[in-house]
Each structure stands twice: as structure tokens, then as C-alpha cells.
Specification:
The structure is a homodimer. By secondary structure, chain A is α+β, with helices and mostly antiparallel strands. The first copy, chain A, has two domains: 72 residues, Arc Repressor Mutant, subunit A (Orthogonal Bundle); 65 residues, Ferric-uptake regulator, C-terminal dimerisarion domain (Dna Ligase, domain 1), CATH 3.30.1490.190. In chain A, 31% of the residues lie in helices and 20% in strands. The first copy, chain A, is built from five helices and five strands; from the N terminus they run H-H-H-E-E-E-E-H-E-H. In chain A, strands 4-3-5 form a three-stranded mixed β-sheet. In chain A, a hairpin with a 7-residue loop joins strand 1 and strand 2. The two termini of chain A are 33 Å apart. The interface between A and B is large, with 43 and 43 residues. The first copy, chain A, binds a DNA duplex through helix 1 and helix 3.
Chain lengths: 137, 137
DNA sequence: TATAATATTAGGAATTATTCCTATTATTGA
DNA sequence: TCAATAATAGGAATAATTCCTAATATTATA
């Protein structure tokens, strides 16, 4: 049985107003301004719980720590190979991708995740070769 | 400049003959039969290096350790929510997915990864609710 | 073939990211 | 108001991976 907690509410509100897919550590640092004694374990527990009940999304990019996304409208993610930033990406035409994947497969395809890689708009535009600062914290 | 190493060749050969997407630890345990003194660090270094030069593929499922795939023919992966096994999945009709993702995006989409989730053929067939043994090692 | 340059290794320490443990505190239903 | 129990803080523990260093293997070239 789920009980209300001020810490969890604060974490969810924080994510609802961010569009940069922060890590657990970044969430922790920010929530500490309101709850100076909150522990990193509490942040992780609530992030995982919120993801399980479908209030937020967990993004495992395969490089670096997991990230979290408060935007639950259907969308994909783009990860810049250059600066490492993670951006929202709406892609239409992929509505039937699970059905495509089911062809010639004996099991049941119930969902998918997809990450797109390349150069983000800022890095693509830059003439200089230094990656621009990653917008993370 | 890349120099030949017997350990790296052995790791690549091992993966070329496996279809179960082993973890670094599993690779390590198996390569130890030929090289009893090989270190886990060497296994990781070579797996990452082989992945970088495109000889093998690294699979980050988001749960548990990374897995490695010696099959470089274009294909996707399916991860069973029930038993955790990782299977190859060929999906046609996704050839233009990077172009779709590029619509209304200022940057450059150069690639993507996608993982499909659900019940593998074995688990879908099972009447009992216990997950069947994961084929990992 | 011998030598020099340097890439790779073994072994283990260190780091990173995350989960787990426990006594205390907060929430909630009765 | 009280009892049941979910959630927390704080920190230890774990899992996965990377990093460090002296020794070894590979390779280009003399």
C-alpha cells in the first residue's frame, strides 16, 4: 500500500518542470535545497517507484548513469555523441513497430525502447570541434 | 596503432561462436580455460575496443550487466521480461527509422538502438508462472 | 636477426552507480 | 488518539566497470 511522502512529491514536481533528463545525483542535489537531510537512497527508491507506477520514465543510455524524465507523453530520446546531452524527440510512423517486430517471432512483443544517436542541433552547428558544455545539472 | 593480441583474438572468436549474448563475466570465465591468467580488466578492455571498431556489438539492456554480441549482421534484440534472456530479432521495415527521426530535428541522426520487450517464445508457451532458467553462461 | 618503440597484459586497487539494512519518523485508517 | 505500517536518513554493502603500474608481447626497422 502506497503512502504519501513529501519527498516523493517534491521529486515528482521537480522532474515535471525539467526537460533535461537529470540523473539521480542531480535530482538529489536539487531536492536537498528543500530537504537538506534527504538521502540518495530515498531519491533512488522514489525514482524507481515513480517509474514503476508510470509517473516518470527511466532512461538507460548505456553510457553513464541512468536519467529520468517527467514527460510521459509518448516520445523518443536523442543522445548527442558529441556533448552527451539527452533531448526529447517525437518520431511519427513508429506506431506499429511492435507488430513489425512480432513477425516471425514465437513470443509476445509488448513494448520497446529506442535511442537515437548523432549530433544535437547545437553541436551540428558549431564550427569548432570542442563539445559544448553538457547541460546536465 | 593497434597491435595483435592472442587474448583479443580469442575473445572475438569466442563471441563469433555464441548466440546467447554473454556478459563480460561469462566471457572471462570461458576465456580463462585457454588463458588461465587473463584478467577481467583485459576482457573489458578488449570487449570495449572490439565494440568501438565495429567487430562486436555491446548491448546495454538497462537491467544487469552489459552483454556482447559477435553477430554483426543487422538485427535487433528482444529481452524477455520473464526470464531475462536476450534473443536476436530481425525486424524489417525499420530501414528508414533514422530519417523518420530526423524530421523536425535540427541536428543529425546518425544511428539508433532499439530493444524490444515482452515474453520470449519459451515463456509465452509455459503454463506455469515460474520463469524458465535463464540461458546466460 | 637484433633492437627499440610501444601496445598489451596481469593483478589488483579504485571508482561509479546503485541497492540494501536498520532504527527512527511520518502517514493513514480505525 | 492510537496502532499499523510505509517511508525515511544515514551509511554500509554490492555490482559493474575502469584505472594504475610494472612486466611482457608485438611490430617496425636497422
Amino acid at each position: 500500500m502506497l503512502k504519501y511522502s513529501r519527498q516523493r512529491e517534491s521529486i515528482q514536481n521537480f522532474l515535471a518542470n525539467r526537460y533535461d533528463h537529470p540523473t539521480a545525483e542531480t535530482v538529489y542535489q536539487n531536492i536537498r535545497e528543500e530537504f537538506p537531510n534527504i538521502s540518495l537512497g530515498t531519491v533512488y527508491r522514489n525514482l524507481n517507484l515513480l517509474a514503476e507506477i508510470g509517473e516518470i520514465q527511466k532512461i538507460s543510455t548505456g553510457a553513464g548513469p541512468d536519467r529520468f524524465d517527467g514527460n510521459m507523453h509518448p516520445h523518443y530520446h536523442f543522445i548527442c555523441n558529441h556533448c552527451g546531452c539527452v533531448m526529447d524527440l517525437s518520431v511519427s510512423g513508429l506506431e506499429h513497430i511492435n507488430i513489425l517486430a512480432s513477425q516471425n517471432f514465437g513470443g509476445a512483443v509488448e513494448g520497446h525502447v529506442a535511442y537515437f544517436y548523432g549530433k544535437c542541433p547545437t553541436c551540428a552547428e558549431d564550427k569548432i570541434s570542442l563539445p559544448h558544455t553538457q547541460k546536465t545539472s
